[in-house]
Amino acid sequence: MTSVISITGLNKIYTDGFQALDDIHLDIEEGEIFALLGPNGAGKTTLISIVCGIVNASSGEVKVRGHDIRADFRLARQQIGLVPQELSLSIFESVMATVNFSRGLYGKPRDDAWIEKILRDLTLWEKRDQRIMALSGGMKRRVLIAKALAHQPRVLFLDEPTAGVDVELRQEMWELVRGLREDGVTIILTTHYIDEAEEMADRIGVINKGKIILVDEKQALMKKLGKKQLHLVLADKLSQLPEKLQQFKLESLDDGQKLIYTFDTQKEHNEIPLLLKTLGELGVEIHDLQTEQSSLEDIFVELVGNKA
Amino acid sequence: MNIYAIKAIYLFEMARTMRTLMQSIASPVLSTSLYFIVFGSAIGSRMVEIDGIHYGAFIVPGLIMLTLLSESVNNAAFGIHMPRFTGAIYEILAAPISTREIVIGFVGAAATKSVILGLIIMLTARLFVDYSIAHPFIFLLFLILTSLSFCLFGFIVGVWADGFEKLQIIPLMVLTPLTFLGGTFYSINMLPPLWQTITLFNPVVYLVSGFRWAFYESSDVSVAVSLGMVCAFLLLCLFIVHLIFKTGYKLKS
Q1: pLDDT tens digit string along A206-217?
Q2: For chain A, which domains are there?
Q3: How many C-beta atoms surround the C-beta of residue A293 within 10 A?
Q4: How far away is chain A from the Cα of B246, in angstroms, using its nearest Cα?
Q5: Per residue in A129-159, pLDDT tens?
Q6: Confidence of residue A266 (pLDDT cuts 50, 70, 90)
Q7: B12 contact residues in A (CB cutoff 8 A)
Q8: Of the candidates A63, A61, A49, which has an alpha carbon nearest to the alpha carbon of residue A20?
Q9: Where do the structural domains in chain B lie, given as residue ranges?
């Protein structure tokens, strides 16, 4: 796959000395949905802002579809649409006027058919003549998306797009994002909702304290770093683990009422049959059993926690 | 050049003016008309002529300049400050537009409004006092150059100000006193020699004087010097705006 965004050795040090980005190297592939995860203050918004031209980098290089964001800023920026985190809108404008304004800013002539399409897709068409100040928070968020799409960008940055929106709108936005991806738009998403990344992303990057600590395919990441656990609820408590069970490195909970066996998802064979057989030989009666798989959230917390 | 972007910013700003006609046009026209009524018609009729010009007519160029300066600064400052205040400036900074295009859009719209306002005030003055314009071309040149340079200055104020109070400081605390003391209501030749010299440090003197020359061929300083001062101020403002975008001062982190 070709890189649509290529970031090399990117650093950002603010005037107060705070290093927001530390030697970032990242390639975003054409047509993918890339989720950038990280705790508050990790550098997600700074990274996006530099690529979009809102913040100046201290050093490093960023190319958008081969165009350097400084030397060739017009061609680089024409490719990009940005949905910011804050509801930053001129509240006295009408929806239609502000979306047309955005298209003009990106050097595109007026295209009523396209603007109507995106306003309809975002269920904003009926509100096109309303002033933005009269819209709800969710509607304002849609206006921001409409503005970002007004010039038909090939790369779309969504900085916490579903922060503060209801479940229904979140689902609608996910649908919209999938639709854009089908149209060939590359999407870079930052989010606090890890289930959002788990649901939508093709690849995941984790940033913490200004450093990219991991980039991988979502499925590969979950397979590599995810773990499965077998929870066994015993009929009778085990006051002490028998010698024969030591090899399984079991975790004992509830005074021996519950045993947890953690196994590697990457291993082709696990030792569950052997464990169950051993328990049977020892006469340990199992009352209930279930398996659990770690979510992306568990992986994220572990990653960020380990690097903290 | 990104013509569509310039057009978008220009029309956006002009639409803002149209939405606020009472505040943008009617209010300054009314307040300037009050000056014409009080100083031009009422008191002016009892005043002696200055440099052979009836007092009511003498103050017309200065009063147009008074409104022009403050409205140019106010309008341009508000135009760039508002998107900074709401955060909507992100879109302009992220768009494929050069500094020059941003400035042409914002300052062009503000200057257009100022020129329209200046012409309306000039026509309104006709209702109260009798005057003539000896050099219409020079009149227009001063009107446009002054509008442009003070709109640029307003743009700088709008970037510099980090609140609405600061936005008002320059027009109210600096420009209005300088205009009142810059020969709007009198010829600086009427002042004692020491004050004449001090007054020459007031840049507004050159604007009012040059503008008055376009009306009556009468001025406190040479019209060429006046034009030179306006052009110098324009270039200074352009240089500061260039520095603002080059360094990202208060616009980019």
Answers
A1: 888 889 988 888
A2: 30-53+77-204+215-223 (3.40.50.300), 226-307 (3.30.70)
A3: 11
A4: 11
A5: 999 999 988 888 889 999 999 999 999 999 8
A6: low
A7: 93, 97, 101
A8: A49
A9: 3-247
